[in-house]
Amino acid sequence: DTAVSQTPKYLVTQMGNDKSIKCEQNLGHDTMYWYKQDSKKFLKIMFSYNNKELIINETVPNRFSPKSPDKAHLNLHINSLELGDSAVYFCASSRSGGPLNTEAFFGQGTRLTVV
Amino acid sequence: GENVEQHPSTLSVQEGDSAVIKCTYSDSASNYFPWYKQELGKRPQLIIDIRSNVGEKKDQRIAVTLNKTAKHFSLHITETQPEDSAVYFCAASTNSGGYQKVTFGTGTKLQVIP
Fold first, then answer.
1. Which of A28, A44, A64, B105 could bridge to B6 as Cys pair (CB 3.0-4.6 Å)?
2. Tens-binned pLDDT, residue by residue, of chain B (114 aa)
3. Which portions of chain A are predicted below pLDDT 50?
4. How many interchain CB pairs under 8 A, A with B?
5. Where does residue A34 rank: exposed (0-12), middle (13-18), buried (19+ CB within 10 A)?
6. Closest CA to A53 of A67, A43, A34
7. pLDDT computed for residue A56 by the predictor
8. A window 86-105, beta carbon within 8 A of B
9. A83 touches chain B (CB under 8 A)
């Protein structure tokens, strides 16, 4: 069973288009994340949701809009795509905070190429 | 907010040698320090972690040390093998308003030369 799954795995689209990436986790985790990994392999947090509530929004352009219909899903919608949006986007999930923080489980990534 | 620095950015070692990757963090409230391995084209996956109440942890050829006073932690891989070649990320995790916030280092590309 795939713990964190995201679709699609590859996405090639033209500048100006709008696209969505979907993410689902079956681990029962309360917290989900979106990370962007650029060509230099840096992993940068974009958003964090806990029980469907936005917790962290790290200065991401408002063209990026996450949506969490329930705590098992966190989708990412991107409007008016730009060349600089090309990257690999990873969804991840972990148990909630509290005294014991835990590892994050990552999806397989979505390689977005804007042409 | 938390700032995690990781060195070196690239590391080449001969097969069988040891590899050491070092990270420093800034937020003394960070209490959980995972290490992830990302093979080419794959997702990051946890290889080892350490909590702030522990100074050292070992799992076969991999060990992690934590110095809370100096705010640094390190990954040690002994008897390296070609399959250890990957990008390694350290991370520091803290509770922010009751929720976990994870900050990653910038990654180390390890190449093990056969």
1. B105
2. 789 999 999 999 999 999 999 999 999 999 999 999 999 999 999 999 999 888 999 999 999 999 999 999 999 999 999 999 999 999 999 877 767 888 999 999 999 999
3. none
4. 71
5. buried
6. A67
7. 77
8. 90, 94-104
9. no
pLDDT of A101 reads 75
Q: What is the pLDDT of residue A89?
A: 98
Give the closest-approach CA distance of A79 to chain B in angstroms: 25
First to last CA, chain B: 41
Residue in chain A nearest B42 by alpha carbon: A108
Which secondary structure element, helix H or strand E, spans residue A112, and what is its range? strand A110-114
Tokens of residue A74, six digits: 């966190």
* φ, ψ (nearest 5 deg) of residue B43: -85, 155
Measure Cα distances from B91 to A112, B37, B57, B111 in Å.
25, 11, 16, 21
- CA-nearest residue to B5 within chain A is A42
Which distant-in-sequence residues (6+ apart) come within 8 Å of A65 by Cβ?
A76, A77, A78, A79
Which residues 6+ apart lie within 8 Å of B69 measured at CB? none
Q: Which of A55, A67, A59 is nearest to A22 (CA)?
A: A67
Give the distance from residue A17's alpha carbon to the nearest chain B alpha carbon, in angstroms: 25
